Amino acid sequence: MREVELVIIGGGPAGVCAAIEAAKCGVQILLLDENPKLGGQIYRRLPDSLSITDQRQLGKDYSQGTQLLAELEQYSDKFELLRDVLVWGIFPYKELAFLHDGKTEVLKAQRLILAEGAYDRPVPFSGWTLPGVLTAGAALRMVKAEKVLPGERILLAGTGPLQLALGAHLVEAGAKVVAILEASSLSGFWKQLPHFWGQWGVLKDGMDYLLKLRKARVPLLRGYAIVEAKGEEQVEQATYAKVDRNWQAIPSTEKRAEVDTIITGYGLVPSTRLSRLCGCRQKWDPYRGGWIPACDEHMETTIPGVFAVGDCTGIEGAIVAKEEGRLAALKVCQQFGLITPEEASRRYSAIFKKLRGLRRFEAALNNIFAIRRGLLGQIIDDVIICRCEEVTAGEIRKVINEGFINISEIKVLTRAGMGPCQGRMCEPIIANMISMETKQSMEEVGFYSPRPPIKPVSFGCAAEGDSG
Fold first, then answer.
1. In whole angstroms, what is the distance from residue 157 CA to residue 163 CA?
2. Most buried one in 208, 236, 327, 357, CB count within 10 A?
């Protein structure tokens, strides 16, 4: 079986920076990415079918991504890159199984850096399965990378700064943004201001987005959330309402808007399937997105030689992700004896200092825009929770009321989480429903235990390879 010193899974900011840092020290690297091009969500590249005449028009994120990937290219002779790769299994002793060019390959990693990223948090409501309802991440990809408008009359509903960024991009692209619903009332915002000190670049970006939205006369409604989507073949109307501090809709405050698109952006969920497969201990952190792998200060998990970096360790933004990638790579270099402990310590100190300020800022944002459970408490029984298997909220509540309060039992009894997405979309919702119905803590509810393959592959591909 082929053996590689360092395998990095994920080509976003964290994975790319880890590859750069490790390449500088001469580590043998294999970088695997699921996308056709590196960059992740925030630095996503344009498809080859689109040409660029003026890169400045694509925004600061695109320019920063170009610079980062150009730096990586300087070390192209020091690492191997495989794109369009689907990692579907991790087995004991850091053995990986992945699909590439239609065939399964198996190898062993001496060290492993997981940069899985995150995905949009699903928030069900009546009508959320209608065509025209999509998540912020999908909409941002359409507008930034594919140059396609998701609709003509658009309502944004959710929480957090991404709402402003997406709204500004939509306005620039020519869409009519009917309104932006911000579920948080921003109460207590002023208490967090000291934590924003020094993050002037990020604050300026936020102000720029606000000014663009104000110039386009886009209403920003704080303390409102989406309640229902209506339509025959697709979304035609949205109902939204004022919400209380727990984000429960307040009766008789409903308003309606004629729209053809509803974009929901209630933050991100860390992607932890691979770290769970490795056996890494997980911990619950509601302010950083939910379940995340427990890591030490150098981003090493509870499984020696396995590191996790970026948004899969908690939602803290691209700048933090890049520093975490560098930190993990330096630790790998030290473990291989390629840099001295003194040199490593000096370089760690600079990263730790930078991360302290960044994490204070991100923690303040996560505190302000933390998800409240009132959104889930108002889901009626006929709303579909597991879209893959079409399991409704009523079916899940029925099983819970019958005494089955273990998340794995509910999966078996209802098939919720057994579809192609393997529970990525429904697991956070079902776990919260169990907690709310039974008064258990989220730690007590737990999470699904993934098994290979964690993403759909053909039986023939899964049977290939020489791992035994």
1. 8
2. 327
